[in-house]
Design brief:
This protein has 230 residues and is of the alpha/beta class. The chain is built from eight helices and 14 strands. It has two domains: 122 residues, Rossmann fold, CATH 3.40.50.2300; 97 residues, Orthogonal Bundle (Arc Repressor Mutant, subunit A).
Length: 230
Amino acid sequence: MTNNSQSRLLIIDDEAQIRKLLSVALHAHHFETLEASNGEEGILMASTDHPDLIVLDLGLPDGSGINVLKLIREWSEVPIIILTVKEREEDKILALESGADDYVTKPFGMGELIARIRVALRHTAKAEEKSVLDFGRLLIDLSRRVVLVNGNPIKFTPTEYELLRLLATHAGRVMTHRQLLKQVWGGQMINTDSNYLRVYIGHIRKKIEVTPTQPKMILTEPGVGYRFVE
């Protein structure tokens, strides 16, 4: 997948006006679109038409979008971006931990959604594990567990390195507090206060950010988690 014209997007939303708006905007950016008006139809189209990305509304007439998300995740790793009118942090966290790659809250800016779609597609295109992650001034050599900033090696503790590696290998995606705690520290840490995680993120930012108090690479998603920006 090297350009938008090769990308087929499935829109699962019960509002015809939203589907039309999205289709027109996505076509203008040279994406191909498919439309489903309910969860059952969306699951069928996801399995038969093999879209490159799914835009999924959480509020569907025949059930929860979360259930649709979970069912698709049983057999597919296709990127899924959630559309929701719900602003509660709990809803965003549930969607992300159920397998969503990202979320956009209605009403949303089309420019923001297009940007999120492009990031998700780019991440999928590079999903095969690389031995070196190159983000310009930051380079991470996964095979040697070496981190370079502006060509200079930077010392990381094992925990700091694992956090950075996890965020960087999922660049563009929101990683929730629970996901980070579970994958870095194990199941015994998943109920730990997020302040514990915040301390480690602070240490990492001091080592890789130009201005740690105004981070550009590791962004905070308030109440939800963190996003590594490429």
